[in-house]
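Protocol step 4 of 6: structure prediction from sequence.
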Amino acid sequence: MAINDPAWSYGTAKTFTGSGSQPSADGLWNYGLLTRRFEFPAWGEQLQGLGLLTNVKRSLEKYIHDNLYTTENLSVDFDGVPFDDSAIAESWLQPRIVNVDREYARQASSTKYGNDTDIELKFSIFVKKSGTTLTHKHYLLRDKVANYFKIGEDIDLKDYVGDSATLTNMRVRSISSDFPLPETNELLGYEVSWMINYTEEITQAVR
């Protein structure tokens, strides 16, 4: 994956400054604005840890980064990061969270509610016909992605807004969509989505 803007990155740190990419120890990146300093607020009794979708997004991106981008050496169009598909010779993945569904599960503690939360993670897979001689290349990539999202697979949910500690696991529960995209003159495509589940804790409002 080529990141063309030298000031762009994404990642885990609570505070960052400057205009250059700032790689963190775990392989994710941070985005530094040229003259501004950004800090997450002091959360206090506000939403924390398991109640923050920021942690879900970053944890899934971390898993994709480590396994598909780094280990499998696949090009990945991460959400929110500049991506130039014209610079890609053959193929790329586009992972996106497309839905969050909740069902009240229980009162997690004296101060927190518990939701049974389902995250729908969709992968759109694109292959340039000009870059491959394989008519089934998009199926091969679909299967490569699926190898990391087997039913029952656990994915660490970390507190990236806090101290990056592991909070719990998210578990892959089911495939929600799985089909080839309509072929164009330039591209072969495939779409596959998974439902990923965890228990979300929500702090009760102060009365």
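Step 5 (inspection) to follow. Confidence is low (pLDDT under 50) at residues 1-23, 31-44.
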